[in-house]
UniProtKB/TrEMBL annotation:
Subunit description: Homodimer.
Entry EC no(s): 1.1.1.85
GO biological process: L-leucine biosynthetic process
One Gene Ontology MF term: magnesium ion binding
Lineage of the species this protein comes from: unclassified sequences, metagenomes, organismal metagenomes
Organism: termite gut metagenome
PANTHER family per the UniProt record, alphabetical: 3-ISOPROPYLMALATE DEHYDROGENASE (PTHR42979)
GO CC list: cytosol
Protein name (database record): 3-isopropylmalate dehydrogenase
Enzyme class, UniProt record, top EC level: oxidoreductase
């Protein structure tokens, strides 16, 4: 099966670059993509550290054939790579990465990329699992980290007992492992989630045809037991 981690830079790029806006007549819109060497160095170094803890492979995803910011990303990654000789490093354009996630997801270990590319690729990754309700995520800060499902909130499901709780539970497992260093406890949670799926204790979004769909609370209670 596929087991990969996508490390996405969250504070730079098109989403936060300035200037940003529209012309007075509304006929022109513009966004600015900006990255500094320090920003890229910080996130690429973090990606190498995580790759060292996993299967020691890092894929640097960019669009260096057309974007100046991507060329900076690749340049910085190539400067850092010799500091981690144990890690196999590959460089890949984002369009190729999008294709490989669907065709060969197991070929990835750790990916690192800029904000917008990471936003798109992580949502695409949910197709591999069959539901966004299965994917945990973490926003890692120097002093504080936030762990949450990749899909964010789903207010339309409030009070209906239909939301898949597995991404939230797996986010808690990530918190135990990456914030508290409690790898054993994290693995126990993941094993319980795997067991629930194997036992067909599933919400409607991932249940097999003809099988009973369980509610949010029922799945959660089964995993706790």
């Amino acid at each position: 099966g596929a087991d990969f981690m996508c490390i996405r830079e969250l504070t730079g790029g098109l989403y936060f670059g300035r200037p940003q806006g529209r012309s007075e007549d509304g006929n022109t819109a513009y966004d600015t993509c900006v990255y500094t060497r320090n920003e890229v160095t910080r996130i690429v170094t973090l990606a190498y550290e995580y790759a060292m803890k996993r299967r020691k492979k890092l894929t640097v995803i960019d669009k260096a054939n057309v974007l100046a910011t991507s060329r900076l990303w690749r340049e910085v990654a190539k400067e850092i790579a010799p500091e981690y000789p144990e890690v196999e490093t590959e460089y890949m354009f984002v369009d190729n990465a999008a294709m490989r996630i669907i065709q060969l997801p197991a070929s990835f270990d750790v990916m690192v990329t800029e904000n917008m590319f990471g936003d798109i690729l992580t949502d695409e990754g949910s197709v591999v699992t069959g539901s966004m309700g299965l994917l945990p995520s973490a926003s890692i800060g120097i002093h504080t980290s936030v762990f949450e499902p990749i899909h964010g909130s789903w207010p339309q499901a409030t009070g209906k007992n239909i939301a898949n709780p597995l991404a939230t539970i797996l986010s808690a497992a990530m918190m135990f492992e990456y914030s508290f260093g409690m790898e054993r406890e994290a693995n126990l949670i993941r094993k319980a989630v795997d067991a629930s799926i194997s036992a067909n204790i599933r919400t409607q979004d991932i249940q097999l045809e003809g099988e009973k769909a369980y509610g949010t609370s029922e799945v959660g209670e089964w995993i706790v037991k």
